[in-house]
């Protein structure tokens, strides 16, 4: 998924309009708004996949979908993974939508904002009752030779 005003550019298929990035990742209000939009986008995609599985075509221009696509979808087993803020989005979406059975966050935090303004997400404060994997790494600081953990 490309999220409007977050990705390098998002082009809309109907009119060809291109929207550039904007916003401040360090601003917790903007970060929370972006996260909420990502969760809503994910839930919308799940809704549309359900529509396709039921034999409907949600394409705005009514372009034909690949033959057999709906029958190929198994929405009884859905996983979601993402990198960085996408991984955070996976966890936050799982808090709000039980259709996602498992998730993975690759090298992403579970909070938004920065510094003293950093706030934990609901995935941290409420937790999950389904599998969720956090993948991070240790990095060696070239200046000090010490290691630091990034999650």
Q: How would you characterize the overall build of this protein?
A:
This protein is globular. It has 151 residues and is of the alpha/beta class. Strand 8 (137-140) and strand 9 (147-150) form a beta hairpin. The strands form four sheets. The protein has a three-stranded parallel sheet with strand order 3-4-7, covered by helices on one side. Strands 1-2 form a two-stranded antiparallel sheet. A two-stranded antiparallel sheet has the order 5-6. The protein has four helices and nine strands; from the N terminus they run E-E-H-H-E-H-E-E-E-H-E-E-E. The chain has helices spanning 28-53, 69-72, 85-96, 122-125, and strands at residues 10-11, 18-19, 79-83, 102-106, 111-112, 119-120, 132-135, 137-140, 147-150.
């Amino acid at each position: 998924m490309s999220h409007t005003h977050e990705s390098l550019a998002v082009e809309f298929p109907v009119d060809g309009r291109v929207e550039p990035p904007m916003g401040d990742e360090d601003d917790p209000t903007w970060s929370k708004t972006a996260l909420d939009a990502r969760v809503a986008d994910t839930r919308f995609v799940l809704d549309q996949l359900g529509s396709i599985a039921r034999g409907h075509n949600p394409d705005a221009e009514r372009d034909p979908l690949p033959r057999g696509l709906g029958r190929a979808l198994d929405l009884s087993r859905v996983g979601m993974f993402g990198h960085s803020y996408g991984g955070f989005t996976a966890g936050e979406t799982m808090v709000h939508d039980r259709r996602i059975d498992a998730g993975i966050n690759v090298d992403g935090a579970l909070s938004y904002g920065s510094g003293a303004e950093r706030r934990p997400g609901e995935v941290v404060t409420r937790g999950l009752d389904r599998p969720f994997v956090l993948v991070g790494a240790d990095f060696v600081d070239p200046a000090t030779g010490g290691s630091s953990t990034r999650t």
